[in-house]
Amino acid sequence: MREHGFFSRTNRVGWTSAIGLALLTIIAALVAFAWLPSAQADYRAQGLWDSICRAAGVPARWLEGSPRKDSADVVATNVVLLPAMARTASPASVGRGATLALNCTMCHGALGLSRSDAPNLAGQYPEVIRKQMLDYQSGKRTSAIMAALARNLTEENIADLAAYYASLPKARTAPTTYDETLPALVRVGDPMRNIAPCISCHGGIDQKLGAPWLEGMPKPYLVQQLEDFKHGQRKNDGQQQMRNVARPMTAQEIDSVAGFYARKALPGHH
Fold first, then answer.
1. CA 39, CA 32: separation in Å to the nearest integer?
2. Which of 121, 179, 219, 255 could disulfide-link 262, Cβ–Cβ 3.0 to 4.6 Å?
3. Buried b (16+ CB within 10 A) or exposed e, 220-232
4. Dist CA 185 CA 191 (whole Å)
5. What's 184-262's CATH class?
6. Does CATH place domain 83-167 in 3.40.50.720?
7. Start and end of every Cytochrome c domain (predicted)?
C-alpha cells in the first residue's frame, strides 16, 4: 500500500511539473515574441522572424532613423503574382508586344538593352515586367514617364509587352551562384541586420517569383533603386521586403552590390 501511494504521489508531482513547465514555456513565448519586442520604441516587425530578432535584441536599434510605418503602407502593391504569369507566351502575344515596345526604345533600347542607364529588359522574367507596369499604372511605383506610358495600356497589352521582352536574346551571363568570392551581402547577407542574401531571391540558389534578374543591369540604376528603397521613396515591394533589406545597408555596401551585378554584363553591354 505504501509503495502504491508513493507512485501515486510521484505521478502527481510529475504531472504538476509538466503542466508548470508548459505554462512557463507559453508565458516565456508571449514575453519574447509579443511583449518584449513591442516594448521597444522602434519596433515594426511584420512577422515571426522579425519578432525573434527583436526578442534577441539584435540589432539594438533596427531600422534606426526611419519613420514608423502604418500597416497600410507595408503591402504597397495591388499585384498578386501567380505562376501563370511566368509561363511562355504564344508567338502572337510576342508579336503584339513587339509593336507596343516601339514606344519604349528611347530608354530601353531597340532590343531591350539600355544605353541610358534605364533597366535592361531583354530576357527579363515576364512576371517582373507585368508587375512593375501594373504598379506604374496604379501609382504604387512612381515615375512620370512610365506612368504616362502605362496609363492607357490594358492588362493584355502589358502581358504582350512582357512576353516580347522575355523572348529577346538574353544579353546576360549565367545566373549568380553560391561562390566564396561573391560579395558577402550577395552570398550570405547579414542575419544580424536582417539582410537576406541577394541570391536567395534574385537567382542562383533560388529565384523568387517576381524578383528581377539583376545581372548586367546598369550600375547607376541599381544604386538608385537601392537608395530609393532605403529611404522609402520606392514602396512597391510587398511586405517591405526590399525596404527592410536596403535600410541597414551602407553607401559602400550599396555601391559594392550594384557594382557586382553591373559587372556581370556581357562584353559590350555595360
1. 11
2. 219
3. ebbbbbbbbbbeb
4. 10
5. mainly alpha
6. no
7. 92-169, 184-265
User: Using one digit for the tens of pLDDT, what is the confidence trace for 163-218?
Assistant: 999 999 875 566 677 777 889 999 999 999 999 999 989 976 667 999 999 988 99
Q: Are 160 and 96 in contact (CB under 8 A)?
A: yes
Residues in the chain, overall count:
270
Could you give phi then psi for residue 188, rounded to 5 degrees? -125, -5
The model carries a pTM of 0.72
Pair 207, 201: CB distance under 8 Å: yes
For the chain, give every domain's residue range: 83-167, 184-262
Q: Are 31 and 51 a contacting pair, CB within 8 Å?
A: no
The grid coordinates of residue 119 equal 533597366
* Nearest residue to 245 via CA among 209, 206, 211, 205: 211
Position 99: which residue type? T
